[in-house]
Amino acid sequence: MSVREEFDDWATEGRDKGMEARHWHTAKHALARMPVEAGDVVLDMGCGSGYAGRALRDTYDASAVYGLDGSPEMTRNAADYTDDPQVGYVVGDFGSLPFADDSIDHVWSMEAFYYAADPHQTLEEIARVLRPGGTFYCAVNYYEENIYSHEWQANISIEMTRWDRDQYREAFRDAGLYVAEQDHVPDREITIPDADAFPTDDWDAREAMVERYRELGTLLTVGVAP
Fold this sequence. Notes:
By secondary structure, this protein is an alpha/beta fold. Helix content is about 35%, strand content about 20%. A 7-stranded mixed beta sheet has the order 3-2-1-4-5-7-6, with helices on both faces. Strand 2 (about 65-70), helix 4 (about 70-80) and strand 3 form a beta-alpha-beta unit. Helix 1 packs parallel to helix 4 and helix 2 (about 15-30) packs parallel to helix 3 (about 50-60). The relative contact order is 0.15.
């Protein structure tokens, strides 16, 4: 199954809203770090329901936000959820971004980058479209150090890229992006029961749940175009 087919199904089933609710726990903290200024143009890559683009417009005076997704149904839903003429949606491929060289000030991607068929090519495309000094904020929960995410591949037909922290840094640099920062954004909104409630249906021990959400959380890597 292709990315388009997989996520068209998700959008039709209404799973985009569930993704938004889960991702927002850490996305809002990462988005708050983005150095967006008045007049900037922002690309939300793998936009899903479009929540990140709407949040950026609500917070900053960006001149335009583009949400790109490989799923036409996702972009259709996102447009239905959005009442802002400065936010637009486009169906596109991560490996060939439909934007001119040096045309984007900031790129955001949450829980989408690892679906790229060729992540190195995607990084080269991001470096191409970013203006000098532009940033790429890449947020993922599926990564090597997060052992609790490893089983996700079995639940989806699309091949996902599972890099570790060092591989992200190296790939960013290979694409010509400086790595400005990299850290973990904890999820402090997931309720973790007291120790006597374990084991649960999903967790054998409280310590594992604490590690997954409070310590590992979302891996955020920030690249800057020279």
